[in-house]
Amino acid sequence: MFFKNNKEIKTGDLKLSDYDQIWTKFCFLDESGSLNNKTEPYFTLGILKMSQPYYLQSKILYERIKNNFHDEIKFNKLSKSNVSFAKIIIDSIFNTKSLNFYSYTTNKSSKYFLDNFSDNEWKAYEDITLKLMNAVLANHEILILIADHIVTPENIKYEVNVKKIFNNNKKRLSIAGVCRFDSKSNDLLQVTDLLIGAITYDLKLQAGLVSGDKYKIKLVNYLKENLGSTNFMNGFRNYNFSIFVEKGNGEILENKDKITNEKGPSS
């Protein structure tokens, strides 16, 4: 059954019986940088969104078997032995339909960050997640958020808070659930890591903060070539990619894109 888009039905008026009007999208979230590391100026959150993770996951599994590659795919571990496989992963992303990527990068020395996120790193992580989710969510969507696992204090309930706050803010069921997994066990979290790692590294290169590792630069340039972008200092946006780089006021656009041109769930 193909997805039906009835513009006459408002998202908030959808019922469970309108299942063919509702997109359920999986979102794979990872971060680059650390909120509490003062030597790292940039912090990036990224989300890979898709209705059918099977298609990208099956491509990656096929390439793993074909290339006898069984290691974790991680931007910070790029080297001569794995950069070719990382480029294969980039190819797989661009060859997969009905896939969207979103990222938000903040400079931790900016006035906006210091005014809004500097008091509590765990609260900041939640707030930046919610900020990015505003851009990710489209009409007629319910999201399932799968986030990379990080060790937190016992009183931090990231999964509970993000779902509760986001649904309350939207006044509807917008997130069906939030769960954390170790990225070593999930290829799609590793894909997100590759993308946000490349974006953050390019920002560091442009700012003169790193001299440049040749294997990381290879992947950064390969991603930019595929996107048709020269650098990410001013962000980047096309139909599938929304890369936001905070410029001091924290502005990030909400997802107003219609889904009438998107393929159905079977694509």
In short:
By secondary structure, the chain is α/β, with parallel strands linked by helices.
Shape type:
globular
Mean pLDDT: 87
CATH topology: Nucleotidyltransferase, domain 5
User: Which stretches are low in confidence, meaning pLDDT under 50 for 5 or more residues running?
Assistant: 256-267
Class computed from helices, strands and strand pairing: alpha/beta
Describe the protein.
- By secondary structure, the chain is α/β, with parallel strands linked by helices.
- The protein has one domain: 2-Layer Sandwich (Nucleotidyltransferase, domain 5), CATH 3.30.420.
- Helix content is 36%, strand content 19%.
- α2 packs parallel to α7 and α6 packs across α7.
- The longest helix is centred in the C-terminal third of the chain and has 20 residues.
Topology at a glance:
Elements: E1 23-32, E2 42-50, H1 53-67, H2 83-94, E3 99-107, H3 111-116, H4 121-136, E4 141-148, H5 158-170, E5 175-181, H6 187-206, H7 214-227, E6 236-237, E7 241-245
Parallel strand pairs: 1-4, 3-7, 4-5
Antiparallel strand pairs: 1-2, 2-3, 6-7
Helix pairs in contact: 1-2, 2-7, 4-5, 6-7
Task: Throw out a few tags for this protein.
alpha/beta; single chain; 19% strand; 267 residues; Nucleotidyltransferase, domain 5; 36% helix
